[in-house]
Amino acid sequence: MTLSKLSLRNAKRQAGDYLIYFVTIVMVCAMLYAFNCLVFSKEIHNLSGLLDNMTLMIVLASIVVVFIIGWLVSYTTGFMLSRRSRELGTYLLIGLENKQVARLFFLENLSVGGVALLFGIPFGNLLYQALRAILLTMFSAPYHFHYRFSLKAIVLTLLYFSAIYFFALFRSRKRIRRMKIYDLIYFERQNEAELVKKSKTRKTLFVISIILGIAGTLMLMAATKLLIGVIGAGCIIAFIYGFFTSFSSGVPAYFERKPERKYQGQNLMIFRALTSKLATMGIVMATISLLFTATLLTEGAGMVFNGIFQGRLEKNAFDLLFVSDQESHVEQCLESMAEQIPLTASWQYKLYQGVDDSLVTYLEETAGYYPFSYSHDYNSGLFMAYSDYAALRDMLGLPIAESEPDHYIIHCMPYLEETLSRWNQPLSLDGKTLSQGRIYTEQFAQNNWNGNGHQFLLIVPDEACVSRPILRYAVAAMTEYNITKEQYETLQNSLFVRAMDGINSLKNDWDYMYSKASLVREVAVWSAMSSFPLFYLALVLAMTAATVLTVQQLSEAGRYRRQFELLRKLGMDSREIRKTLFRQLAIYYLMPVIPPVMIAIPFILDLCNAVEPGTMVGVNSPPVILAVSLGLFFLVYLLYTVIAFINMKRNVLPDHIS
Amino acid sequence: MLQVRNIEKYYGNKNNITKALDRVSFDVADGEFIAIMGASGSGKTTLLNCISTIDTVSAGDILLDGESIAELPSEELARFRREKLGFVFQDFNLLDTLTLEENIALALTLNHTDHKVVQKQVNRVAAQLGIEDVLGKFPYQVSGGQKQRAACARAMVAGQSLLLADEPTGALDSNASKNLLEIMTHINQNMGATILMVTHDAYSASYAGRVLFLKDGRLFNELLRGERSRSVFYHEILDVLALLGGDISDVI
């Protein structure tokens, strides 16, 4: 049998043993390819010029992925090497040279990688179709399924993959070349000693790591400068490693002090399963925990960014809105609109200056008042005549707001509703006193930079406005269909050209134009740019960590099997055997998740609250974002856990029990 | 205490049946030390596995204290094993991740013995077997003889009434073997344990009070030691083995 045949056969067997690892590599290959397709797709680039930035983000994310997966492959091959030391030793014993064995191992891993590529690319193409569909839908562009491969994307994927594999295999090659037959064959695995032996050092380390963890989380939350963020991240890394080494070293010490505890229930088996690989376990758990922390933070950030953009989008109700302090500009704009775009409705109106700044002061003092942007003109609030308000509501298809005589209406952001209902102050206009009436919170462009108020708007009877100074002239319109990017640009340009003619300077400070359709596109770009690469990274991180955990557990199957076989002979009943296995796995899988969840919860909630209030509401409210972030993460993690548990049950439990 | 009635055991499928045990019957009285001998493949280990309820018989019946173990449900069998049976294996079968003390205690924790009693019991048995100094060590840190004594300790610490040993001296040097066999004799004579030992080593078998010979799954002969000295008994065993046609290298 030739060397290559032998290695091919070994690779096949290896793929069976490390199926989860293999599936992860295939998935990563698929993701690399799919995102590479996005990078090279002309169709996607034509959607918006801004998407070029997304390409850059994806390439950066892919490079990070290459490093992470490089580590995974290197870790797993090192792991396989130690598990198969006896086999490799036998090769040396029958006369193969170290060089040949190293080549054998190299070929084996390369063929695993090659097969992964073979499966990964077609699957990646399907994944790309899904990404394409999402992006095109975000831009309201038509989607047609087509299964075409991109050569450039394949080449780039190959390049990434070679980088991953050469990095990992170079290391194992060096290791094999230095090995001696004796070491390989008599590689008896012994129990590891605790890393930190002195109980006082251990306690100090534990306390310090907890303090560092809290400090690091706070710093990440408060990070306004990059340096603080970096220090915070450093603290968290120190916390996780400190926590796991001191904790794992503390377990044997605990049972030494309370020997009777370990003889309770199944404690003995579980405790010894944990401590047999104490040193590596501490480090591996810490590394996995760190990967999980990164996963949750990136995923949470992706969700929050997406929420911010979506939240801002929903506030805007009109298809087109133009606001200016010059009446002529508004008229000119309406004229151009009517010429170029089929409108279903339009309404020209005025916004009047409020009386004083008492309401703004009240809001600033009581609620988390958060004007998206600030213009002093709006400091005393804005008034709108009731007739305008009714017409605009009608245009938006909102129910009629009943006007009560001698009352004013408030239209505000939902988050201000409660505070404003407690305001309840009368309004004096031209010697007439108006009391506070109903409050409405529908989307009414009350949140725009220069729209219908800064988060709130007061609606007064028409006659009460007569004496008020006019602050803004505005026109709102609804279009027959979503206007295209080109139509919007033409509209903007035509106004601009007229201004250049010298008739009027349209590019005035207070001229503000807004189109819902263009904002939808802008939001799509931002969402895609922030959440695509972040979710991509998060998924790869979670998969890597879960794979390391699972591969380690599954490779322990032989030892577990012997253990349970003996326990069965000694008379442990099947129910208890299953319970012990379940507990061993549960502890193993739960431990590394606890610190990341503790860090991620305050971080994500804080990130949500850093945005102006009223944005993160409904499906984007902080609890929902937190729940979805954790939910998505645990979904991926649970998948690996369940596979590991089923596999373990099959491989480990004596036949008739499983 | 143990009655084996006409047991048979077949392996394989319809077309290719191997008869591992063929109508084997014998009785074991309380406090006996019995050795089962035979060449490789004669069915010794199968017999032991059937008695220890790890394997099931194809026909026949095994009664322990008058109770048929074939009829017990699996939960009952597990309870039966942990309360009544002690095991000693050729390769010790100690868990690498547990110290000797914990390995011995395993039998008690399975019985949910009160944790205060556990340590006392373990220390008592360990002292009897002379391994109290190495209780805190892991199996890979002690000698084969010490490992096997720990296995013996585990087999008797919970007060098991029947000790089943499968080639207990197989992995030991002659000195350690002698030591272990003397310990087993001590357990049998002074502590009243019933021992059933499978071996193909005549020297080990000569420590027993009775030797059963198996050949091709059938009971071939039976030797009683009676009042004879151990060395006389040893030579008698060798004679029977010669008759059995066993490989001589297997015997010495």
Tell me about the largest β-sheet of chain A.
9 strands, mixed
Q: Pick out the low-confidence regions of chain A.
A: 502-506
| Gyration radius from CA atoms of chain A, angstroms | 32 Å
Helical run tally of chain A = 24
Category by helix and strand content of chain A: alpha+beta
* Average predicted local confidence, pLDDT of chain B: 86
What share of residues of chain A is helical? 55-70%
Assembly classification: heterodimer
Strands across the major sheet of chain B, in which order? 6-7-8-3-9-10
Strand content of chain B: 25-35%
Q: Which range best describes the helical content of chain B: under 10%, 10-25%, 25-40%, 40-55%, 55-70% or over 70%?
A: 25-40%
Residue share in β-strands of chain A: 5-15%
Shape of chain B: globular
Describe this structure in words.
The complex is a heterodimer of chains A (658) and B (252). With 658 residues, chain A is α+β, with helices and mostly antiparallel strands. Chain A is built from 24 helices and nine strands. Chain A has a nine-stranded mixed beta sheet with strand order 5-6-4-7-3-2-8-1-9. In chain A, a hairpin with a 2-residue loop joins strand 5 (427-429) and strand 6. Mean pLDDT of chain A is 81; it is low at 502-506. Chain B has 252 residues and is of the alpha/beta class. In chain B, 39% of the residues lie in helices and 25% in strands. In chain B, strand 1 and strand 2 (17-28) form a beta hairpin. In chain B, helix 3 packs across helix 4 (115-129), helix 3 (100-110) packs parallel to helix 5 (144-156) and helix 5 (144-156) runs parallel beside helix 6. The model of chain B is unreliable at 248-252 (pLDDT under 50). At the A-B interface, helix 11, helix 12 and helix 21 of A face helix 2, helix 3 and helix 4 of B.
